[in-house]
């Protein structure tokens, strides 16, 4: 069985979120979308469900975190340093905001942004040799 992940995010404006995430190169699965939710397809196994806040509240026993707080950090792997930079640039050019400065550890590189609703996204590239244990993993804990 292939595991899948569905990240559910409350948003103020589903149409604006659709436009933002498609500007990053992701697609929308219309079968699981309507005027209150959009199913953003990040990959074959990763989906982001952007939901109107009132619809999101129906799925949670707890209140939505207030603006200016962080409840979750979403981290997405990238295939290269260039892809990290490209996605950050696209996000900032299409309504996203700067979040943290870029991180460069030689074998690992990362960038980040906030979507229009303030959800934090980190982007990470790691040298494939580091995944095989050929790089210093102790440097990865920052």
UniProtKB/TrEMBL annotation:
<dbReference type="InterPro" id="IPR029068">
    <property type="entry name" value="Glyas_Bleomycin-R_OHBP_Dase"/>
</dbReference>
<dbReference type="Pfam" id="PF22677">
    <property type="entry name" value="Ble-like_N"/>
</dbReference>
<dbReference type="InterPro" id="IPR037523">
    <property type="entry name" value="VOC_core"/>
</dbReference>
<feature type="domain" description="VOC">
    <location>
        <begin position="3"/>
        <end position="126"/>
    </location>
</feature>
<dbReference type="InterPro" id="IPR053863">
    <property type="entry name" value="Glyoxy/Ble-like_N"/>
</dbReference>
<protein>
    <submittedName>
        <fullName>Glyoxalase</fullName>
    </submittedName>
</protein>
